[in-house]
Amino acid sequence: MKPFAGFPAGKTRFTPIPDLFYTELLPRIADLAELKLVLYMFWALNRQRGYPRYMTMAELEAEGTLLAGMPTDDDTSPVEALRRAAVRAVEHGILLLLTVASEEQQTDYYFINTPQGRRAVEQVKAGELILENTGFVREAYVEPQRPRIVELYEQNIGLLQPLLAEELEEAELTYPADWIYDAFRIAAERNVRRWRYVKSILERWAREGKDDGNRSFQRAGQRSASGTWGRER
After folding, report:
1. Across residues 148-165, what is the average pLDDT?
2. Rg, the chain, Cα only
3. Which of 58, 90, 149, 203 counts the most CB atoms within 10 A of its CB?
């Protein structure tokens, strides 16, 4: 493949992307296929005219440029990689999925999660807007996202001190989200509302495995209840 020759001089078209994409979404997108799909959606919808603006899965699957950029292996075709990327983008709240089904066909519509996209989805659900395929609207199931570590801290311990912010961010990158959630839950159930205790649970799970760590901290929690542990200094 020849290297990119560079952007040409003169007038070129640009695709606007909100700054929040770089500050909020880019750090969260770990999958290359999802990143390519989201960027392609911004490009494709920016070139549409009128309202509403969306892409169907059938249209996306027919986009040769998009499919050519999908990462594949022996077990994954470009179309399969695209579909998985769409699922992840919906789970992350970047894209909105609206499925309209009739006896003859089912169509998956994808909108970017902007005010215009949200309004179009709500209008279709309310029967105020009809897309090219009429039928029953099916809600997309999205697994609830775990609260971020800062939210868990403030919900279970208190107002976050600036000196702890960097340590919490490092923990969020180090441990699985469900570990962090469970560690805060255990600390709250035992009324040990301090970050050092939550951190010690996570460190023990990392060393011994989550099941062993749970049993170990069950004993620790019993000591806490007796007054030996759990006192904030």
Report:
1. 82
2. 23
3. 149
How far apart, in whole angstroms, are the C-alpha atoms of residue 226 and residue 230?
9
Domain assignment present for 231: no
Residue 61, both tokens: 């699957």
Q: What dihedral angle (degrees, nearest 10) is formed by the CA atoms of 106, 87, 76, 4?
A: 110
Together in a domain, 109 and 175:
no
Chain centroid offset of residue 163 CA: 27
Please give the Cα distance from 119 to 28 (Å, whole number).
25
Residue with token string 């010690």 = 200
The length of the chain is: 233
Examine the domain organization and report whether 108 and 203 are in the same domain. Answer: no
Q: In the structure, what pLDDT confidence band is assigned to residue 109 with cuts at 50, 70 and 90?
A: very high
Average pLDDT over residues 223-233: 33
Strand bridging mode 95-101 / 55-56: unpaired
CA-to-CA dists, residue 187 to 45, 154, 157, 178, 206, angstroms: 46, 13, 9, 14, 17
Closest among 176, 216, 227, 172 to 195, alpha carbons compared: 172
Query: Which residues on neighbouring strands pair with residue 76, listed in sequence order?
Result: 73
The residues, ordered by sequence, that sit 6+ positions from 216 with a Cβ below 8 Å of its Cβ are: 204, 208
- Render pLDDT for 1-18 as a digit per residue (tens, 0 to 9): 689 889 888 888 899 999
